Amino acid sequence: MRTANVRPVGPRNQVTLPKEALELFKIHPHDLIAFVYTKEGILIKPVTVVDRDASFAEDDLDEIERSIRQQVNAGDFTEFSSSKKAVSFLKGKK
């Protein structure tokens, strides 16, 4: 990935993100972004907040896990060697 855009930190500690980055990652005004600190520097990534009521409850996750175990034990699953192959398979199911 290209990293040629260099921007100054303004007097109020603000940085303007390049238009190219905003378009590439579909970031719009008022979107939320996270700052992840790594050995190499700061990773800036868009994030989505999920309401707790809209997320899975622990019972739901337990049921999903039981269902997955049953499918695996029955041999009722498809294994993929890459995410591209999985996406291709799922698109074929549409």
UniProtKB/TrEMBL annotation:
Q: Name one GO molecular function term.
A: DNA binding
* InterPro entries xrefs: SpoVT-AbrB_dom, SpoVT-AbrB_sf
Q: Which SMART domains match?
A: SpoVT_AbrB
Where does the secretion signal sit in this chain? none
**Domain SpoVT-AbrB per the UniProt entry, residue ranges:** 7-52
Name used for this protein in its record: SpoVT-AbrB domain-containing protein
Species of provenance:
Candidatus Desantisbacteria bacterium CG_4_10_14_0_8_um_filter_48_22
Q: What is the lineage of its organism?
A: Bacteria, Candidatus Desantisiibacteriota
